Amino acid sequence: MAGHSHWAQVKHKKAVVDSKRAQIISKLLRAVTIALREGNNPETNPKLRAAIERAKEFQVPLENIERILKKSESSENKLEEVIYEAYLDEVQLLIKAITDNKNRTLGELKHLLNSFGGRLAEPGSVKWNFQERGVVVVSKENSEQALEFSYLFQDIDEKNGDILLITEVKNLNDLKKKLEENKIKIKDSYIELRPTNIIKNLDENKREKLNKFIEEVLNLDDIEEVFTNI
Predict the structure, then answer these.
(1) Is residue 89 helix, strand or coil?
(2) Beta-carbon contacts of residue 98 (< 8 Å; ≥ 6 apart)
(3) Distance, CA of 114 to CA of 119 (rounded, Å)
(4) 32 vs 64: CA distance, rounded Å
(5) Global pTM value
(6) What does the pLDDT read at residue 57?
(7) Rounded to a whole number, what is the largest CA-CA distance in the chain?
(8) Regarding the domain delimited by 4-70, which CATH topology (the fold level of the hierarchy) does it fall under?
(9) CA-to-CA distance for 42 and 173, rounded, in angstroms?
(10) CA-to-CA distance for 68 and 76, rounded, in angstroms?
(11) Can you name the residues that pair with 159 across neighbouring β-strands?
């Protein structure tokens, strides 16, 4: 099972201190803003729907989400989504940022990578190994029933006793609808960058260092998510 998105590390920390909560809410709302650029209808824009659902899951005030949705993209909106490619030891990293100042974000990321002995990678040298996919999580007991809709997903994975249905992003909403219509409980759903070639065994010291790096990089205001190939 590959590492995939490390947003889940934040998600499962139920007691988020107030200072962190404000930062997380800001990141979630920026993700909604970026997703809006691919269409303002959550039914036809799976990225927007995923961003809204994630924001609601973290109890972002509904009025804050609606305020973003009512705003059309304007010339004043300077936000950009950037994906940085990097290495820490032999581990490949894709680091997703939403920023209004790429120079600032790059400088902060370089400084942190250097402090951990990591480095930025040449464009394309990491990204080739990752594909954007939708993921729907259901209980293992529902796996046979979910297989009826295998025409909507490409692969199945397993994690922590749950079944992960892997689909193309464009099919994510349709897959969720079919599961919901058939009373199959969805435990989670999200969009992530999944690695094709993974590292199955990583030295424990390197794994500990990687986890510490991920924790610190996610503390940077502009960093949204980190994906790895472990």
Answers:
(1) coil
(2) 27, 30, 31, 33, 34, 79, 80, 81, 82, 222, 224
(3) 6
(4) 11
(5) 0.84
(6) 86
(7) 50
(8) Arc Repressor Mutant, subunit A (1.10.10)
(9) 9
(10) 14
(11) 162
Pairing of strands 155-159, 91-99: unpaired
Q: Where does 80-128+198-228 sit in CATH, by number?
A: 3.30.70.980
Report which residue type is found at 86.
Answer: A
pLDDT of res. 206? 96
For domain 129-195, give the CATH superfamily: YebC, transcriptional regulation domain (3.30.70.980)
Task: Specify the DSSP class assigned to residue 79.
Answer: -
Can you give the pLDDT at residue 97? Answer: 97
Instruction: Give the phi and the psi of residue 112 in degrees, each rounded to 5.
Output: -70, -40
- Amino acid at site 73: E
The sign of the CA dihedral 100, 103, 106, 111 is negative
Q: Which residue has the tokens 């939708």?
A: 134
Instruction: Identify the pLDDT of residue 207.
Output: 95
pLDDT computed for residue 78 by the predictor: 82
Walking along the chain (230 residues) 10 residues at a time, the average pLDDT comes out as 52 57 90 92 92 90 90 67 97 97 97 98 97 95 93 92 95 95 93 94 95 95 95
Q: CATH 3.30.70.980 occupies which residues in the chain?
A: 80-128+198-228, 129-195
CA distance 56 to 21: 13
Give pLDDT, residue 75: 46
CA nearest 77: which of 95, 96, 60, 98? 98
Residues 6+ apart with CB under 8 A from 82: 96, 97, 98, 99, 102, 105
